[in-house]
What we know:
The structure holds two protein chains of two kinds.
Chain A: H1 5-43, H2 49-64, H3 67-77, H4 87-112, H5 116-124, H6 129-159, H7 171-182, H8 185-213
Helix pairs in contact in A: 1-4, 1-6, 1-7, 1-8, 2-4, 3-4, 4-6, 5-6, 6-8, 7-8
Chain B: E1 5-16, E2 19-30, E3 34-39, H1 45-52, E4 60-65, E5 68-69, H2 81-88, E6 91-94, H3 106-116, H4 122-135, H5 151-163, E7 169-173, H6 181-196, E8 200-204, H7 208-214, E9 217-222, E10 225-230, H8 232-237, H9 242-250
Parallel strand pairs in B: 3-8, 3-9, 6-7, 7-8
Antiparallel strand pairs in B: 1-2, 1-4, 4-5, 9-10
Helix pairs in contact in B: 3-4, 3-5, 4-5, 5-6
Amino acid sequence: MIFDWAVVQYAAPLLAHGVVMTLQVSSVAAVLGLVIGLAAGLGSLSNSLLLRGIIRFYVEFIRGTPLLIQIFLVFFALPVVGVRLPEFWAGVVALALNAGAYIAEVVRGTVGSIEKGQSEAALSIGMTRRGALLWVLLPQAWRPMLPALTNDLITLTKNSSLLSVISVYELTRAGQAIIATHFAPFEIFLLLALYYWALISALAWVSRRIEAALPSW
Amino acid sequence: MVTPVLVEARGITKRFGPRTVLEDVDLDVHEGETVVIIGASGSGKTTFLRCLNRLETPETGQVRIADVTLGRRSDGRPADERELSQQRRLFGFVFQRFNLFPHLTAMQNVALGPRRVLGVRRAEAEARAVHELTRLGLAEHVGKRPGQLSGGQQQRVAIARALAMDPRVILFDEPTSALDPELVQEVLDAMRALAGEGMTMVVVTHEMRFARSVAHRAVFMADGRIVEQGVPNDLFGAPRDERLRRFLRHLEPHHDR
Ligand SMILES: Nc1ncnc2c1ncn2[C@@H]1O[C@H](COP(=O)(O)OP(=O)(O)O)[C@@H](O)[C@H]1O
Ligand SMILES: [Mg+2]
């Protein structure tokens, strides 16, 4: 097999559009996923049994089913109940719901493991459990949570390649389009891998910088 | 004391699983009074303090403070969490291990309650925090995190944190027993000053000199009950209960300050 440099040169700038879309869909999904994960993680530490039950179900469902199925469910099943989302937003919602479940577990685990004396001290100055979570426990959890959160966001970014199946024109989909017309799968998939790798490395770098900037005590 | 009763605990019983840790404990604390609680390890002192401010919920019994019954609304119905947290605020609590918020400076530790619980504006909450910290001799340390402070300084920050909520009574759970010996005195001095200003205090401690010179009353607990109580000099000088006698004999000399 001969490595076709010409197709690489041709594809590299075209794929840049895909990179932009991957960045867009992943970052919007990441923000939404963090919000969902934070809310669900804190909710699972509340004393409402109903709320905890609902969150448990959500987390177990996401962890127990393939992301691909979840993407199809959001894209094809939601219209059945009257919610029709364009591909981009269906992709964002699917990725965010997926990441949110894993992030919720990280939040629950980390915030829940902060020493009991901290929440008792918060209660002793008149805070509610919720106030203690918000003002005392969560601020202490950011730093220990960061590595696991970074992992989940890296996974989310890589998972965005699955959105190609619902025609979100992100990196993988862009690559597939070039393969379809030029038939150079090895070159293009290799190129895609390098693009993803660069993206993920940048994300990991940012995370390390944030970790270094967060105050420690 | 001749002042009115401020805190009234009646028939407090607390179980952990099959173990009864407190059995039918009654205690009145008068306005401005300092009560010291002594007793062997495991006798229920901490649990009793925690039942007073409802960090633990007793199985039976009632705690009243001023005209509030903890866990009840004024119409007698059970208080919800928000109401209970407001009632709990009437008590300050100083923990054996300080339990300061490690990510916040001394000032932020003290200002957090006023800000987030009382809804005081930031500048005002911080001014109040600086005021309380200064009162406890910590003016130069307002900007330091707990990790940068000695144990004695941390415990004084914890006292300032309790004071900033303007409690009716402060509960101290062995406030000096986690401290290196040379740091004990500064905390005891701060507590002595508070008592002198008329703060109502319930103090679990084995610092006998402090008890004798500051407390109006000493209470001895054993096996989850109050066994004997009286003016400290009487209680320590002429103990009647055999367990109290044994306890006083076995108090390590270094406890006596
Ligand atoms: N959360 C808990 N769960 C089970 N047992 C407890 C708990 N807290 C305290 N106890 C038990 O209750 C008894 C009294 O404890 P405590 O109030 O801490 O005593 P003291 O402060 O006098 O040393 C001890 O035997 C202790 O083991
Ligand atoms: Mg104790």
